[in-house]
């Protein structure tokens, strides 16, 4: 009998329960994976709390990314075999010792990349890929603002954006996190608890504003993010760690400089097999070339997922966190 974290009803971290969870044989087009590590991400909190409804209701196994070894394959699976090292991003299901997964949602992990690194890098790393390369393709000489610069996505974004030739400004909530962000490639770091980030961004850009703002914070950074943009700049809202942005009149975008905005999600950008493999390969490439160094700053036992969620929500974690079965 294998075990998993189960959520029987939405709520706080206390609803995360370590229970027996049988896993059957893979069906056609499926693989069975023995988990080496699961990634911890804020989207896991959204599903656990009910902000994002679980597609198939409760109970459900949370967790959106993981890596492990293929232990069985179903009929029709030709490009993966027992023993392959794979990683994946899925809506739910990674907080488990073993799991079933559609084979077309898994990618092979190249030799030389540790499975813990892959598990902690997939969701955040592919998020950085689509944000920097596809949602707003960053060009040399541009200036970007990335909120939560010491977080998992922000830590990767600083180094990757620098490799593209951008000037990178980040915001953080403490001096300790500011030092971490500087070590991750940020040219300028603003502690929003001690200085007004809008005024500081304007100062750093000689009043011009930045080309794009990447914002996973939400409520606490709105509408300040808009005020950091140059005319016709783009605000990319891809999360809401501080709460949802309240509804606002679209006219505010024209009033603040004919601005663009979008609310993307990784799952749209990796919906096709080609997009998934392209994004993963781009991520593995920058890891292999040393552009990204995935710092796993916290490791928890999978059975201790409740504590991991509490620490994540209380902003006690930095960089990448993995759960180990």
From TrEMBL:
It comes from Pseudohoeflea suaedae. Keywords: NADP, Oxidoreductase. Residues 11-323 form the Enoyl reductase (ER) domain. Signal peptide: none annotated. GO terms for cellular component: cytosol. GO terms for molecular function: mRNA 3'-UTR AU-rich region binding; NADPH binding; quinone reductase (NADPH) activity. This is Quinone oxidoreductase. Pfam families: ADH_N, ADH_zinc_N.
């Amino acid at each position: 009998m294998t075990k998993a974290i189960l959520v029987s009803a939405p709520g706080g971290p206390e609803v995360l329960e370590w229970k027996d969870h049988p896993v059957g044989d893979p069906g056609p087009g499926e693989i069975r994976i023995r988990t080496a590590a699961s990634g911890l991400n804020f989207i896991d909190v959204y599903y656990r709390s009910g902000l994002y409804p679980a597609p198939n209701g409760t109970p459900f196994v949370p967790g959106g990314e993981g890596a492990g070894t293929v232990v069985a394959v179903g009929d029709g699976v030709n490009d993966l075999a027992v023993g392959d090292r794979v990683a994946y991003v899925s809506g739910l299901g990674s907080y488990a010792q073993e799991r079933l997964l559609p084979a077309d949602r898994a990618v092979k992990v190249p030799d030389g990349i540790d499975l813990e690194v892959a598990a902690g890098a997939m969701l955040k790393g592919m998020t950085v890929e689509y944000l920097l390369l596809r949602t707003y393709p960053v060009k040399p000489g541009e200036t970007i603002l990335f909120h939560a610069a010491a977080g998992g996505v922000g830590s990767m974004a600083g180094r990757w954006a620098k490799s593209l030739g951008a000037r990178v400004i980040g915001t953080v909530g403490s001096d300790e996190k500011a030092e971490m962000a500087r070590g991750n490639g940020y040219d300028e770091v603003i502690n929003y608890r001690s200085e007004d980030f809008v005024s500081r961004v304007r100062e750093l850009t000689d009043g011009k504003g930045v080309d794009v703002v990447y914002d996973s914070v939400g409520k606490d950074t709105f509408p300040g993010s808009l005020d950091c943009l140059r005319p016709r700049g783009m605000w990319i809202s891809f999360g809401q760690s501080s709460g949802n942005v309240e509804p606002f009149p679209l006219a505010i975008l024209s009033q603040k400089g004919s601005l663009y905005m979008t609310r993307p999600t990784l799952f749209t950008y990796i919906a096709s097999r080609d997009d998934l493999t392209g994004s993963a390969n781009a991520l593995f490439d920058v890891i292999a070339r040393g552009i990204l160094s995935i710092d796993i700053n916290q490791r928890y036992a999978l059975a201790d997922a409740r504590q991991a969620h509490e620490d994540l929500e209380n902003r006690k974690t930095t960089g990448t966190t993995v759960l180990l079965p």
